[in-house]
Amino acid sequence: MAKIKVNTSTKKGKISKYIYGQFAEHLGRCIYEGIYVGEDSDIPNINGMRCDVVSALRELEIPVLRWPGGCFADDYHWRDGIGPKDKRPYMVNTNWGNVVENNHFGTHEFFELVEQLGTEPYICGNVGSGTVQEMRDWVEYMTFGGDSPLANERRKNGHDKPWKLKFFGVGNENWGCGGWMRPEYYADEYRRFSTFIRNYGDEPMYKIVGGPDRTDTNWMEVMMQEPVKNAGGVSLHNYTFTKDWGNKGSSTSDDVSDYYSLINNALEMDKTIKMHEEIMDRYDPDKEKGLIVDEWGNWFDVMPGTNPGFLYQQNTIRDAICGMITLHIFQNHCDRVYMANIAQMVNVLQAMILTEGEKMVKTPTYYLFKMMKKHMDSELLDIEFDNLTHTKDGVTIPKLSVNASEKSGEYLVTMCNTSLDDDEEIVLELDTDIRVASAVCMSANSISDYNEFDKDEAVCPKEIAVSVDKNTVKFTLPKMSVCAISIK
Ligand code: AHR
Questions:
Q1: Is the model's pTM score more than 0.90?
Q2: Which residues line ligand 1 (CB under 6 A)?
Q3: Are 113 and 226 part of one and the same domain?
Q4: pLDDT at position 386, please?
């Protein structure tokens, strides 16, 4: 039995809705096939965007979408992706399988997608192989409402009004695929490029400094010294592997030690954030600058028989459990983590949606985001609970991960049970009376179960029974599950 106490009067900060952001790159079948099929496709679409995928994603109320990469961003030249499609030049997507990119999905198509999803755009600019002028012109093309050659070119291409664009990333992984730069060199490049990212709209642009990989604290230190001064925040990329980069493991592994190792690695996100927070706090004690974890998620070996450059993997209850642990960590650091973008939205890495031709499935990670979406823009609440643990092959992991939040007098408590063997009786106590409570849980028969095309879903949320008595809710938290308890 585990007792969880929620102190509703002790608020710990606002959970930025942007923590539930997504990322879509020109990589594998994420954009093409997964989202954009073109106006002439037999797959039902609106202006080229798949109706089934867009309609499923709309239910997640995605707050922000990062595009066009990733590594692709520092190889992308926006002018190739505007104007009549049959005149757009082709290019080779050298980062991702050397496939030919026809540029049919460009700036106008991205904003069309943003509109159809009801989300906000976050564009990542090209520092690695682009020019300052190219970046400044792109911003003017997108956001200037007056009479200028670039704004008029946008009009000629079919969009009269300027688009609203708040988030702009100045390069991606410039320590690696974005130019293999030293931090000091990138810092200078950031200062030059960012000077020319003008504010044409009503709101100042929230510029994002290209941040470190995982635990590279030196990179963060350099970015906090100068570049961050004219920026909204600094990015961080941190993926979770079964063991490590060289041993990513299978996305459908049912090996128990793989499971423990994976969960243990997901928990590392907390230490990584603390490491960077310590540096950010020294330079920015008032916490005005955001930590933008704009790439995170589980990264496994590609599914056998698929293109190694396409990063296509399956998605099981393990992904949902890791996802909840990670989102809880972000929420626990909500005074610093302003945005996070899971990689990636469709068909790549820890995706929400997988497609095969005209077929589509919602993954366990999709359902996780749906179950947790009410945390967006709510107040994080103080909680206390028993620190139960379990151990396998010398790896000890906590049994529970729990978060609680409040918005407009309604409470959402999300929790997972990492045990593969034992259900847990939960006594959830609030310091206020409860009128109604309900719970949905997602579990599976095996840790390697996933949702298959043309079959009933093996992993999806189901309502479970709860009993309410004054200020207490009792229920059974199933083994290897993620649950969301809504309370009024
Ligand atoms: O998300 C896949 C890739 O991972 C991105 O393109 C890159 O930024 C990161 O290394």
A1: yes
A2: 25, 69-71, 172-173, 295, 343-344, 349
A3: yes
A4: 86
